[in-house]
Design brief:
The structure is a single chain. By secondary structure, the chain is mostly helical. It has helices spanning 3-31, 37-49, 54-61, 65-77, 99-119, 125-150; strands at 52-53, 81-85, 93-97. The protein has a three-stranded antiparallel β-sheet with strand order 1-3-2. β2 (81-85) and β3 form a beta hairpin. It is globular and about 55 Å long. It starts with a helix and ends in a 13-residue tail after the last helix. Residues 159-163 have low confidence and may be disordered.
Length: 163
Amino acid sequence: MTGHTKKADHIWLVMIKAMHALTRYATAGIEGTGLGNSDFRVLEVLLHKGPLPVNTIGPIVNLAPGSISIAVERLVEKGLVNRVESAEDRRVRTVALTRVGKNLIVAAFQKHVAQMRRVFSELSAEELRDFEMALKKVGKRAAALLEKANGAPRVQEGDRRNE
């Protein structure tokens, strides 16, 4: 095993541990808003992207078709989103925030932003920029390797905020 490979294995372990800690911290903050993680992700996408078809939301927030349908139904029942059938294609249902949903996700997202700023406050602006670029590079490489291994085109999850 080369030094580079050994280092890459170690970095992967460090990244996984950091991601688990970051996820636990973020999830605790999200749950403090009264939302679950998947509900928060759906509402956040609608806040930043506007109304979207149900089948477009799922891949963006990493939910399977059945799971996104259940999440949207739960949000409809809570009065946080509404579904509207497309005039052009009745099979397409667009999901949009209600006023109550928008107020909730704006407040929850502001809290989340503050949490993430605390987490990343140890890094300088330059370190944050370098970290983001490195993560994008690694993520794109992993996606390309998976595509090559599977022989299938890569599925883009969607760009939530010009990532």
